[in-house]
Each structure stands twice: as structure tokens, then as C-alpha cells.
């Protein structure tokens, strides 16, 4: 068996991609090798049309000398529509080995041109059926298939609304809420379905149900409907290809029939009402009598803006069974799902005809244990099922979703004696992205926090990145997506998810470059700092995390447009000081009655102006736009200088005395280098003086721990993470949260709630701390100059001793990366796994090179280690692919110094600590950024370093420890 092989083939991030209109789809693969430090030297790709016979390929790349194996564009003859392409890859490595051809995979094109649509948009005749009728439309058509072997059959379909398809009585596909939500006036996705196995010789029938969905239903807070159009419609084209090469096409046209069916109401916010007595048994089968059904009419809707499905569709990804039945003090019967989830309940019941069962959904119970819906606002979140009385019936809503943990049940037969748990199944719905990341550590509450972050992403990444999945909102807020993008890309491969959504952002962007608050945009609001910056931050995050250069190219004009828009605002081209801004939204230092934090809004705008301009500069360099790179680079420097003039004091302090103001100056690299230590010290002092509590909102919170860890206060950052008292990340965990809350005190310590007007218990923004957990605690991150984890940074930070172990794994485009560390008595073990065709820069913090062993041998003798060197913070190891287990002496001096410092901190002997340090090693404390009232956490980050000799260090340590004792 060959010890080098190719596997994991994808096209545009997906395996066996059915139905794409990408003209040059990109191919990716992974390498597996039994040798360490394996790097690809060359590859060969072959693509064949229709079959796996590669003797006459439509593209043969030949042997290409390149290490690239991610997102390689197809370079063959122009693709043709409705064609399956098979492809295979082989690779050569730097050891001179050649792999076998991998197993062939495929992708299939859909329509590549709008002119290929023969179908017409259809809707029920408005004379017969009111276009504004609440019930979902049912549409059908019978047709004949020739009695000869069928090679393939494909349906291409979409709707103005949301739809489900049926063929010969069976559901087509497993997508939910198709065609998804896009900027419908400019972009509408269509789906491709393989229905070969459902087709019959002779008589067949197609059926479709169409509801309002996002297209025509209620969205926003003003009971506004018809955001995109005033009637639902269906577009469908079935292509049957016979084995003899002939084809037959069935399309939506005036020959279809329509009626109203059992779905009496279905809305995104309000839920669904289903009257099973109105079911039309066999309605999508050929023999059904549709003589009483009404005609349809063709409607004029565009075809030119149709796009094949771009992201993973929404699907049922998991099922949950209720954990308990709760009888509340108010006498309500409640199902507890044990998890705040997004999706629907599938219910089974045997009941007399006309029995009405009502399911009402909510996230929490109040402090008395009663069902609480105050935070749902005007959304009904209600499902009503009326039984038909024909034995056991099973039902789940079709065109809606709910955000809930608790379900109040009314009308279920015999419920006063107890509900049968097995009759209720929770179906979890979200965009079916590939899970990629795992983080865990020695603290069980942090592990629950990570689970909450993942569940928050699942619930809110439902075709668009929503802000909350339960109340009358569920909109694609740009600010939330922007701050969470880094975390999102660890937990899931969100490449195609963000690609699709960013295309809508670009579509909804104003001509002057302004970016709406929500995408797709259905409210009148544009261009707030940190919100509009989704236009730059997210494309760059996808590029860095997945190596997707095309997304930068696609979004480049949008990115530039946003920065140019900011520059054009007001009279000062380098400080954006006009317009409305959300600022540090929901920060705890806000004035009474305000949602906006105390950090000046114009400071937030200036900081993000600098960030976005730098991103555009960097994108220009990647794309080879040298003039733009120079222009935006110079602009960024002037913006940073203007920031310092406007928001920094002459002696280098941050003028605004808020945590977020200091965070922005540090993380956005806006302070002079000479001032960073002082600013970091001031930030740390704010945290310590506040009892190790944060006061930050949407802008400051995602960057808070980075600001601390990267400036000598990692221990403070970890202590913040582990804080259980309000306000903190673990406070909600201590209150039983299973998702991330919108407010730090969504449920107050006394059990009462924050204001009902805006209190989501599934609101992922503050889950952005997950990125720091991956990058700093586990130490796993890409290096941007070789994006997509082609080159990997592994720098786990265990200093402080508050955690005893941590582990992160990440399924990158190249393969699985792992970083794990654990204290084993007086030893430290660091395990690292690096996939083939990548390299890693690993920091063994606190290590001495001659004391490190790898798999039982010295560093200098270890296979796969390319080089190593001693640095101030430890040993820097450059490694090729493979699995490594590093073991070395626990950095005890750092560890003990930290504890001595913490003891001094508890005794408030800060000045004493600094005097001791200055006496033994003048300037040591200042070089490390120690100011008055600052703990000694930095000593754990730079033991012995370049500032201090071993003798000085040991003498200082002894005196510090004597004070502690």
C-alpha cells in the first residue's frame, strides 16, 4: 500500500457538489503520509465529463510543480450546463514518492445561463385564490415519462417564498426553508435535486407547497410584510435524460393546478397552523383527481438574477428528546428539551378528528418556574395541529422555525396524566456546515461555555447569520457577524456560508459604499462603524482561515467602497465623526437608560476606520494591486495618527477611561509602541480594580482577552474567563444557560429578567471569546502570510496555573491540527499534530532547549523537527507534518513567581513587589510592562528573558516568595 495518498476531495468546500453555476470551480484535497515533514512537491488533476474514464479528460493539469492543494481553480475547457464532472488527483512529495490516483469524486453543473430556463413563474389564479390567503399554496402537475431506461433526472427549482417539492407522493430532497434568504431583488438561489430514483415509467406527478417565508411574510418590528413582493410563486424545470441520449423537459407553466391545503398559516415569527383534516391524500401522485383545483397564471418575475445554491442548505442536523415534563406552579404542562435549540418539534399523536393541540415555544422559565415569553415580543412562536382522527399521526412544521428550550403543550390527549416523552422529538435546524473545531480544558464550566458558543452558532447560522432566533427579529445583523466571524470559522467550515452572505452584503451596499445594518436589508438603517465593517473584516477572516483568495477578489470593490465611504463622511477625512453609530453596544458602563457604552462613539468609528483601511491595504497586496496597497497603506497611517491626536493624551494615555477604549488602542495597534505597556497596565488595573470583572459591550468584549494576553496579562485574561460572578462569561453558565445570552444579566442573580424589549437568550456575539480560547489558551492559529493554515502557529499559553490542561483540534483545509498541553506533576507535556503539506511554528513556553524531549529523544535528534532556537519566552520549534509529544520541566520559576505575584496582589502589595524587582534588576518591571497596581503575570510569560540574568532572577524570586510565605 502506498504510504502517500490523496483524500478528502472537495469542490467549492463541498463533497459531491450537486448543482453549481461557478464557471471555474475550485478543487481541494488533503494528503496523508506515514513520514513526518511531508510536503507536496507537485500534483496532477484530471477532470472527465459524464464518466470516470479519464482517457480523454476535459482537463489534465499535467504534473504541476506546486505545494498548493487548496482551492485550485479548474482550468480546462469551458464547462457545460447540467453536466456531471468526475475528477481525481495524484501528488508527489519532496521525498520523491508518487501517490496513486485517488478515488474519483464529482461535481455537477446546473444552469450556467439564464436563457436555459424554459419554465415560467407561476402562481394560483388570483380570481380563484386570494394571493394574500394565509394558507400555503399547493401546486401540482401530472406528466408522462417515456417507457425506456432513464439515465438521470434533475429538478431545478426555486420560489418567491419558501417551498417543498414532491414527486410521486415522496418528498424531494431534505432541504428546509429553500431557497433560503438572499437579497431577493438582486439575487435568488435555485436548488438542484437528483430525482432519478423517484421517477416512474409512464404516469408521474409533481407537487409543490409554497409559503410566504422571508419573501412575503412579516419581518422586522413594524408588522411589515411584502418586503420583496406581493405574491408567492414557483419556478421549476425537470430534465429527464434517457439512456438513448434523448431528453424530456417538464416545466412550470399554465398547465399546472393549484389549491389551498392543510397548512392554514405559516410564518417565520408566528409559527404554523396545520389542519390535518384538509390533507389531500395522494395529491402529488399521478392518479389524484385535481378536477376541483384552480388554474394557475404565469407572472413576470426576473430570471437573470437566479444563482445556483451557493451555501450549504438548512437541514435537520440533530434530533433531541425531551429531558423532562414540568408541571409549573401556574399549572402549565411544559416539555424541557434540556437545550436551548433552534428548529421544530416533530409530534406523534392518536386523537379524535378535530382535536386541537397547541405547542408554544419559549427559552426560559421565570424565577417562580412558570413559562416565560416576555422576551419573545410579538413573535407568537406557536404551532397548532388539528388532528384528522385516523390513528397515529406524525407532524412537524414545514415553513417556520422556533428558538426554544421549553414547549408549553395544550390539548394533547390525556396530558393531565402526563405526556409521553417519546411522542415529541426536537429537530435541530441550521445551515448544514461541516463541524471543524473542538476546544476543551480542565474547567468543566469553560467546556460548557464552549458548548454554548457552538449551540449559539448553530441556532443563529440559519441561512444568514441572525442576531436571535426566537423573537420578532431574526435579522442578519452585520455587527454580530463581524465580531463572531473568527470564532465561527474555528467551529465550522463557514466558507460557503459567508461567501453567499457577503454576496448579499455587496448586493445591498449603497452606491456610495454605505453598508446596511442588516443583510439582507429590510430595515432603513445604514453605515454604523463596527457593523458596516463586516464588509472588510469577514472576507479577510475567510481568507486567513481558509486560504480563499477568490473571496477577496469578489469582495474587493465592496471593501474599498466601505473605506471610501467612511473617508467621505464629515469634514475630517481621517476621523469619522458624523452619523449614527451603535458604539460599544450594550456595554455595562452605559448611562442609565442607554444601550450605548461610555466609550465615545467616534473613538469606535476611528478605530474601525483604521482597521478596515489596513485590511483593504493587505487585500490589495494579496491581489497584486500595488497602487491601491500604497494608497490605503498611507491612508491607514494618517488615520492612526489622527486617532492618537484625537483620543490619546500627549503623554500617551488613552483619554477615555473605559475598558473598551484601552482595548481598541491596543488590539487595533493605534497606540505608539512606547505607550503600549502603560496602556496595557491601565487596562489591567481597571479589570483588577473592578474585582476582575468586565464592563465591555459588543465592540470591546471580542478583543478584551486578546488585549490582556498579548500585552503581558494572560493570567488576568484567564481569570476573567473563569470568573463566575456577574458580569462574566461563566455567570450565564452558572444560571444554567445552554447558549450565549444577549445581555450579561439576561437573568439577574435574584432570578428576575433584564428588560423584555431586548433580552435574547440565544445571541452569539459574546461567544466571540471562543476565538481567543482557541488562539491563546490552546495556541492554535493560522499565519496570514501563508493563509488557510498552510503555515500554522502553535503557541499554547498555560501560564498562571489556573488551568491544568487544554486541547483544541481543528479540521483545516489541509487536515486535522491539534494542540494540547497538560501539567503532569513537575513536567509539562505539549502534544501537537500537523497535517501533511503544512509546517508549524511552535513555541514551547518556558522551556530550555537542552531539557526538551520529543517522543523520548532530544530535540536535535527528533524526526520532523526542521530547526529550533532558544528565545526569551521559551524554545521556538519549526516542525513539519506529523504528531509530536514534547515533554519538558514544568517552568517552575515562572509558575512560582506567578503565585508569589498573585499573593502580593491579594495583599495589595504592588509597590512592594515593584521595589523588590527594581532592587534586584533595575528596569525589569518597566520593560515587562509592570506599573503600579499590576500583578506579576508577565513574569510567567518571560522568565529570565533578555532583561535579567539567572542570578538576578533567582534572588528576586526568593524575596518575592518569602513575602508570600
Q: Can you tell me about this structure?
A:
This protein has 965 residues and is an alpha+beta fold. The protein has 6 domains: 4-109, Immunoglobulins (Immunoglobulin-like); 114-268 and 278-308, Jelly Rolls; 314-431, Jelly Rolls (Sandwich), CATH 2.60.120.260; 434-776, Glycosyltransferase (Alpha/alpha barrel); 781-884, Maltose phosphorylase, domain 3; 893-964, no CATH class. The protein is built from 19 helices and 49 strands. The strands form 10 sheets. Strands 20, 21, 24, 25, 26, 27, 30, 31, 32 and 33 form a 10-stranded mixed sheet that branches.
How would you summarize this macromolecular structure in one to three sentences?
Residues 327-419 form the Alpha-L-rhamnosidase concanavalin-like domain. InterPro entries: 6-hairpin_glycosidase_sf (IPR008928), 6hp_glycosidase-like_sf (IPR012341), Alpha_rhamnosid (IPR016007), Bac_rhamnosid6H (IPR035396), Bac_rhamnosid_C (IPR035398), Bac_rhamnosid_N (IPR013737), Ig-like_fold (IPR013783), Rhamnosid_concanavalin (IPR008902). This protein is α+β, with helices and mostly antiparallel strands.
